[in-house]
Amino acid sequence: MLDFDLAALYEVETRVFNQAVKRNMESFPEDFMFRLTKKEWREMRSQIVIAYSESSDNQSSSSSQNVIALQKKRNISATAYAFTEHGVTMLASILKSTTARKMNIAIVRAFIAMRKTIVQYSEVVKVIEDLKERISGHDAQLNQIYEALENMLDKKADEEMKLEAWKNRKQIGFKR
Question: 103 is in which domain, residue-wise?
Fold first, then answer.
């Protein structure tokens, strides 16, 4: 999650949020938090503006004002911080407000739910792979069964043709 999204959730300004993080940098190793590159930040900003402009067509003009507010509140030359699940959890130790604690609990629960979904998805993928392996074996067996049935039907058709030919033959001899 990005710093300005987390700041909005914690109901603080991004500047205040980042100051608290900078004062506690030892709590955020690289696997907890990192800064976006300038290229990533440029691309991210363009996506934010596009997202807000698309949603402003459907909603009131307040969302376009959010873009302006985002640009006013943030030094656009400074790239945003991105926080991993562990970084978001660590924020609870540096942000002491009641809102911060409540939001942190909600975010951690969201990450837990996301992880459960990923685990369930992995299990579903494994079951599907197992089914594919079984079905591929069944396909070969079914093909053998179909071939045997076709042979049996061909033999029966041949026998019926021979029987029909025997009945329709030109008979010779005495008629009674």
Answer: 3-117
Give the C-alpha separation, 138 to 131, whole Å: 10
Does 147 reside within a domain? no
Give the confidence band of 60 by pLDDT, cuts at 50, 70, 90: very low
Q: 63-91 in b/e burial notation, b at 16+ Cβ within 10 A?
A: bbeebeebeeebeeeebbbbbbbebbebb
Asked, for residue 89, whether it belongs to a domain, the answer is: yes
DSSP 26: G
**pTM, 2 dp:** 0.50
Percent of the chain topping pLDDT 70: 82
**Count: domains in the chain:** 1
The H or E element that residue 53 is part of is helix 38-58
User: CA-to-CA distance for 14 and 90, rounded, in angstroms?
Assistant: 17
Taking only the tens place, the pLDDT of each residue in 114-145 is 888 888 888 888 888 888 888 877 777 888 88
Considering the domain boundaries, does residue 14 fall inside one? yes
